[in-house]
Amino acid sequence: MKKLLHNHFFALLAWVLILVISVVALPDVNQLTRSHSQINLPKDTQSQIAQTIQQKHWGHHVNNTYQIVAVFNNGDQKMSATDQQNVQKTVDHLQKHKGKYGIKAIMGPNDNAATRKQLISKDQTTQLVQLNVSKKHGTLQKINNQLDAAVKTKGVKTYVTGADILNDDFSGAVQQGIKKTEVISVIFIFVVLLLVFRSPITPLISLLMVGVSFFTSFSIVTNLVDKFNFPFSNFTQVFMVIVLFGIGTDYNILLYNHFKEDLGKGMGKWEATRDAQRKAGRTILYSGSSLLIGFTSLGLAKFSVYQSAVGVAVGVAVLLIALLTLNPFFMAVLGKKMFWPDKRFTGESSSKIWQKMANTSVHHPIVTLILVFAILLPIGLSYKNHLNYNDADEISNTTPSKKGFNVVEDHFSKGTAEPVTVYIKAKHRLDNESNLLLIDRLTNQLKDRKDVKTVTSVTQPAGSKVSQLYVNNQLKQLTGQLGTAQSSLAQLSSGMASQAAMQSASMGAAGASAMAQQQAMMSGMGQMTTGLQQGSDYLTGLQNSAAAKTFYIPKAQLKNPEIQQSMHNYLSKDKKTAQITVILNSNPSGSRATAAVNSLTKVAKYSLKGTKLGNATVVVGGQSSKINDTKTVAGGDFVRTAIIMVVGIGLALIYVTRSLLQPIYILGTLVTAYLASLSVTHLLTRLFLGRPMLTWNTPFFSFIMLIALGVDYSIFLVMRYRNTDNHRYLPTERIVMAASAIGTVVISAAIILSGTFASLIPSGIPTLIEVAMTVIIGLIILVIIIPLVVPSTIHLTYPMRSAMRDNQAKRQSEK
């Protein structure tokens, strides 16, 4: 029993049991990721209010649906009559089998004049079909595959696309990228550890430790997501993989080096295990705790994507427990065999580079700090925070949904695939003349905006005015009728005059009397003609005036079948909510489109102010609105979360360093390295990848990764400094010695972490590539500046240069 306890056998048994449970309990990760891939914004943001209106208060059985677009394209050639017939056959098939495909609503290109204008491109090469598919029908992946097969049409190319489909394909691309990342990471770490320890056994044990930690923690996180809606996103798994394999390997190097050094000093394997646990384990615990605090603080974020990185904290917690409880089993059982066939049992060799850099910095601290920050700060501050919020750019152009999206952009307005929708939700019915007048006026005002291509609404379903519903057209008909009446009266008056003359000649005195009566009647008719002429002149003048350009729908027209169909399409079932669809000229995910959302919102609210709809809820929904809200929420939450994270890590550093100044120096160094690396990454992506802007997720994820992981290396150095005899050496001496002793470990750890992040690059996902580049560049910067900044600040904190010389002279005389 004593031997089993010494060998930590029960720890091994416990972890085997934990691992088995974790693997068995792991949910369907692919489906879990896809179902939690949507960006969740606060409910009080405009786009979410609009979404709520659309889902709960809008439409005729089309709530709780995915909005999907089927694209039919004949390249750059106009569709032939046969092609168009084939497309219509496909649309008819979808209509006939709506239940089979989960379709709740379908709008085809030939449904009416309005759809022909909206869903058939001007060059006649492309036709669109808009579908609302029930979310209960199945997963988006299933729906995509089913519709992709259903829309296949002879003679033309077909695609299934839309914001929901694109987002789902992005989740799939991330999953594929993770598989590549895992394989590359494992191979890279194994090779590096093989070179570091000159043993195949050490890398295998290290990878086993990290693998157990990852599978266990990931099972915990996914079950929390599945059962308790724990924060999760497309990026949670990939960052758990990278962080755990990266820092887990770094910590193992630190632990195994100390264990190996103790064995070289003649310690037994049990004693060496305990000593490594106590000394190296304390450094690992301190470093890991700062990471834990940093990633746990992300749980306080409001933005779902940022909040989802809190899963890494669960991984770090499990990793620390595994490394400090399971590692001792292999160390205590294998002893020196753990490093077979290497027979040199010494610690990590000292770093002459870090020693020289540290020595120089303690002798010239102010000059060193000025040079470091004079070089890095201008680079960092040169970065302009212009970000790309177009998530479609995350997907390869070879993906079918992206191909379809590009076809729509090429042959329609760029905004056609993802239009903006203005919702007007009132407390009273809108299907009456006065409210329709207000909606029509707003429709015309929206059409006048420079970024708008087309606007459709209940009064203008085809995107243009219905002339019969405007006063000038109605007056034209009326003046025409008046003209006809005038002509008839003139003919009647002339006829009566002729008849009167004939009667007068034939009837004598009696005829004269009849003639007098007829003349009186003709006089009255003349007055009527004059009146009609005056009325006609007035109406003609009114018809040509600005006042006649007003919308007016007579009550009788409200029951017109075409008007009823328009109301069905653009008013809610209870007729208390109206929608106005706006197609923009620009990319719906671009900065112009998101800026246009603010403009459209202002125009809509101002137009209805002081009217019967002045108290109505007016919001703008759609992809552009969602991106606009994402900008606002993400930007504000980044600053807030970053402050929380820095404060949390700062408190941890105060405990580790036993200093109030050192955490400020360390965090200042990390933030400077982050700014510089982000700026350099932006330059490289523009020059070599052809992307003028970084993706909107890059700054945040780069920040949390670089700050949380970079602080480890400062802690490694500070802990080595604290473990150096403070009775025999002054602070400046101790920090130089610590830099020399820990430098190689830090450099090795940075290489491993950089290589692990580099494994993200083959994923092909722009965000992952850019985050990898930023972190790698940041780690390189940190490896260079940590031995310059930390020793300099130690010297400035303890200014004992003259005392050090006196102490050195005293020790020399004592020898």
UniProtKB/TrEMBL annotation:
- Transmembrane regions: 181-197, 237-259, 284-303, 309-334, 362-381, 638-657, 664-688, 700-719, 735-761, 773-798
Q: Where is the SSD domain?
A: 669-796
One of this protein's Pfam families, by short name?
MMPL
Q: Which domain of life is it from?
A: Bacteria
> How is this protein situated with respect to the membrane?
Multi-pass membrane protein
Q: Which UniProt keywords are given for this protein, alphabetically ordered?
A: Cell membrane, Membrane, Transmembrane, Transmembrane helix
Name the protein family.
Answer: Belongs to the resistance-nodulation-cell division (RND) (TC 2.A.6) family. MmpL subfamily.
Protein name as annotated = MMPL family transporter
**Biological classification of the source:** Bacteria, Bacillati, Bacillota, Bacilli, Lactobacillales
